[in-house]
Amino acid sequence: MTSNFHSRLSKDLSSILKDADDYNVIIKVGKYQNTKEFRAHSVILRARSPYFKNDDWITKENNLITFNKPNIIPTVFDMVLKYIYTGELDLAKQSGEDILGLLIASHELLIEELFEHVQDHLIEKQTKWVEKNIVFVLNSVFKLEGCEKLRDYCLESICNDLKSFITSNAFTLLDKDVLFNLFKREDFQIEEIIAWDSLIKWGIKQIPELENKDDQKEWTDENYEELKNTLNEFIPLINFLDITSEDFYHKIQPYKTIIPNDIFDEIMTYYLVEQPKTYSFIQIESKIIKPKLANIISNWIDKKNPKLIRTEKKDPLYKFNLIYRGSRDGIDNDSFKNNCKGHYSSLVLIKVQQSNKIFGGYSSIGLKSIGDDFLIDSLGFQWYNSSDNFIFSFEDDQDMRNMKISRVLNNSKAILEYNTTGFNFGWDSLYMEGKNLCIYNWRGDYENNLQVGATYTIEEIETFIVTINQ
């Protein structure tokens, strides 16, 4: 049996580092007024990192190896050396900026174990600092190989509250490569006109001469050409056909010269020829959503593109007949069940307190299910079957960009009949319990696209019977 004495070994190596009277390496770190010299032993450095096995870093002076690293500050390098000699690291009292510096230094010095640990620490223990300094973090680590976890964490955090970020001043400080990656993400869901406005603002920020010209009338042809070159990779990422003609006239037309001719011609063809002339947004008697969101929901019911705008001569539209409203009928389980029982094809909408968010669900078999097609499981719970059900969320009553939908996965457990809830999609995927709306999805009966593990207080709730308008 092998005995381990790591604790004593670590202590002895620590004393060697502190009292390095037989050192053969001098490492100078930092710059300007923030510099420091460290003494070390080449044999230990080489044993702990492949970086030091390459002689390119070596400069000999008075029989000593000297090593200059002006891009690493003393505080960070002190942590690096302590880790190299003792395998110990205490980040509890370190600033977020120094921990990020340690991540970058460990990447450069090829200390893989330290690099992975620090990356995880930033994500798990420095969440608030990272989110507060998210642009600084992204710009610092975006091109670091192996830093995908931290990079994706930052980009996902941005996309979770995209509108606030993209309209902030911090947005204009993003590096070009970071911005391009952000625009290409599938979860980059924002109104196209907002994306365009923010892109123009970012482009102007990159050109100092334009920053000083508040009036676009002062711009020269050279200014437009420079902005065009700055944004040429981004223009094809904007879906101009999702921008209203009014916004196009006021916000796109003034920048015509920076848009490639083929793209601009396509836009003009759409607005002048191809754009549907008659819109038939579904009417809905709702205090929670606007009619255009009912159009999205109807497309979800038909399993079609949610943004498809239907004209009067196309597919049959749905009618939404209000049968229950919480502010009128009472927000509690009994009121919900009494008003919603005995109906198929039902839509429920919920506005929650202290938020603009809207949640909802559609059930082709009703919310207070009826009929004989049910299953009683081993626990005595009664389940109803449907392959058409889904739950969803909107960021506000007009959201057409950040909407999320989760379709039923376990058809046999689409709706749960339960005595302590008003309605229950799946095993607590989305359910009403008195005045509370809960989203947990314990068993994965529905896709996991909504924010789970959340409980909200219901501000308003409505139920509609959905019928086809022939």
From TrEMBL:
<feature type="domain" description="TLDc">
    <location>
        <begin position="287"/>
        <end position="467"/>
    </location>
</feature>
<protein>
    <recommendedName>
        <fullName>BTB/POZ domain-containing protein</fullName>
    </recommendedName>
</protein>
<dbReference type="InterPro" id="IPR051481">
    <property type="entry name" value="BTB-POZ/Galectin-3-binding"/>
</dbReference>
<dbReference type="InterPro" id="IPR000210">
    <property type="entry name" value="BTB/POZ_dom"/>
</dbReference>
<dbReference type="InterPro" id="IPR006571">
    <property type="entry name" value="TLDc_dom"/>
</dbReference>
<dbReference type="Pfam" id="PF00651">
    <property type="entry name" value="BTB"/>
</dbReference>
<dbReference type="InterPro" id="IPR011333">
    <property type="entry name" value="SKP1/BTB/POZ_sf"/>
</dbReference>
<dbReference type="Pfam" id="PF07534">
    <property type="entry name" value="TLD"/>
</dbReference>
<feature type="domain" description="BTB">
    <location>
        <begin position="23"/>
        <end position="93"/>
    </location>
</feature>
